[in-house]
UniProtKB/TrEMBL annotation:
GO molecular function: ATP binding; glutamine synthetase activity
Single GO BP term: biogenic amine metabolic process
Stored InterPro entries: Gln_synt_N (IPR008147), Gln_synt_N_sf (IPR036651), Gln_synth/guanido_kin_cat_dom (IPR014746), Gln_synth_cat_dom (IPR008146)
Keyword tags: ATP-binding, Ligase, Nitrogen fixation, Nucleotide-binding
Gene3D superfamilies: Glutamine synthetase, N-terminal domain (3.10.20.70), Glutamine synthetase/guanido kinase, catalytic domain (3.30.590.10)
Protein name as annotated: Glutamine synthetase
Domain (GS beta-grasp) ranges: 14-109
Cofactor(s) required, per the database record: Mg(2+)
Family (UniProt): Belongs to the glutamine synthetase family.
Length: 450
């Protein structure tokens, strides 16, 4: 991390000349401006402005209608981007550059915009703090690394994609050594940027990678995840390669996930641990997990926000298909990790690599809080191959998940009607856009035979 005084010193000595002033958009991407560092320290550190369409676009930066917060009719005005100086950090993979994340404020009221991802997660973190708990989380980033660059792949129409390796490289040291020209700078640059990187490894497919970051406070974890995802793309590009965080880029390849580990702490100690329990689970943890399970359909749209997200949920691929928990069992949607130890925690295996971590974690925390407040009872864990069964299925499509989000009284109470309606509309936009497009699959299947 970097203090503001340190930044001023580095700017005056000529070590830093650029400040990335960023907000996190609905899709979990960094958006913002590049400031001349001398202008930033002279005054722009207090605030800057952006068009309010940045929190009402799709992946293509289109401006779909139907959002209450902004529209063509309302003229697309400004938001205030308020730099959070506690998030200042170097960006070692870009020369002379530092980064700061911003809270997004209403231009008139100076209040945080409620559907801003940082504001949404912050609200749930603060709810837990009022209950006496700190939310601790960790996310795993999975992605595919390709032989060619983003530009080459785009010019070829995203066809004939070739991963950087030719075989399943799960835990392979031999194959991942060939990828160190990309993965080593990712690990080292992110560490130097203040992210507590643990390791990288080959994942269970050709060209698939995983990056692991040490657990931290929920807000910090979301920040680490967002910055790491951005850095992976930039660093891979610098080395002439493309990466994708698309959950399912090919129907004959396994997908990419982003598992979320979570626990609550109190006074610096793990509140999920009870040494007298058979599995080491405290009553608090059991109620929290019961909430996660009961309300999983409600927040699935935050864990799987696109049409493609649902292509990943297939039996026998280590992606879950059912909302069920089990002990150290990777076939379940929720896995109990570290049973019998102080490191006990729950791993949610539903989120895909395309999730916005702020939204996904906010949904989980809200569900866990509901479980505690409602005093929910956790059912016994499932055993064996959890794929065998057809009860408690994860919503099968974005349409189903959007309907569950829209009808969620729990999330409307926890997040607010405005926030729920905003992200329901985001899901509807994705569905509408997909339904109007003719795919290669349809043409190949029906061109002659239909």
């Amino acid at each position: 991390m970097l203090s503001f005084d340190d930044l001023k010193s580095q700017v005056s000595s000529g070590l830093v000349d650029t400040v990335l002033v960023c907000l996190v958009d609905m899709q979990g991407r960094l958006m913002g401006k590049r400031f001349h560092a001398k202008h930033f320290v002279a005054g722009a550190w207090e605030e800057t402005h952006c068009c309010n369409y940045l929190l009402a676009t799709d992946l293509e930066m289109a401006t779909p209608d139907g959002y209450a917060s902004t529209s063509w009719e309302n003229g697309y005005g400004d938001y205030v981007m308020k730099p959070d100086l506690a998030t200042l950090r170097p960006v070692p993979w870009l020369e002379g550059t530092v980064m700061v994340l911003c809270d997004v404020l209403d231009h008139h009221t100076q209040e945080e915009v409620p559907h801003s991802p940082r504001a949404i997660l912050k609200r749930q973190v603060n709810r837990l703090k009022e209950m006496g708990y700190d939310a601790m989380c960790a996310t795993e980033l999975e992605f595919f690394l390709f032989e060619k660059s983003f530009d080459e792949i785009r010019r070829a129409g995203f066809r004939d994609l070739a991963p950087i390796s030719g075989y399943n490289e799960d835990y392979s040291i031999l194959q991942t050594s060939r990828e160190e020209h990309v993965m080593r700078p990712i690990r080292n640059h992110l560490w130097d940027a203040g992210l507590p990187i643990e390791n990288s490894k080959g994942e269970a497919e050709t060209g698939q990678e995983e990056l692991n970051i040490k657990y931290a406070m929920a807000m910090d974890t979301a920040e680490y995840h967002t910055i790491a995802k951005h850095a992976v793309k930039e660093i891979a590009h610098q080395q002439g390669h493309a990466v994708t965080f698309l959950p399912k880029w090919s129907h004959d390849k396994v997908g990419s996930s982003s598992h979320v580990h979570q626990s609550l702490w109190q006074d610096g100690k793990p509140a999920f641990h009870d040494p007298s329990d058979e599995l080491g689970m405290s009553p608090l943890m059991k109620a929290y997990m019961a909430g996660l399970l009961k309300y999983a359909p409600d927040y699935t749209a935050f864990m799987a926000p696109y049409i493609n997200s649902y292509k990943r949920f297939m039996k026998g691929t280590f992606a879950p298909t059912r909302i069920i928990w089990s002990v150290d069992n990777r076939t379940a949607g929720y896995r109990l990790c570290g049973d019998g130890t102080k490191a006990i925690r729950v791993e949610c295996r539903i989120p895909g690599s395309d999730m916005n971590p702020y939204l996904a974690m906010a949904g989980m925390l809200a569900a866990g809080i509901a479980g505690i407040e409602e005093g929910l009872e956790l059912q016994p864990p499932a055993k064996g191959d959890v794929y065998q069964g057809d009860s408690g299925l994860i919503p099968g499509t974005l349409r189903d998940a959007a309907a569950a989000l829209k009808g969620s009284g729990m999330l409307r109470s926890a997040l607010g009607d405005e926030v729920v309606d905003h992200y329901v509309r985001a899901a509807e936009v994705e569905i509408e856009e997909f339904e109007r497009v003719v795919t290669d699959y349809e043409i190949a299947r029906g061109f002659e035979r239909a």
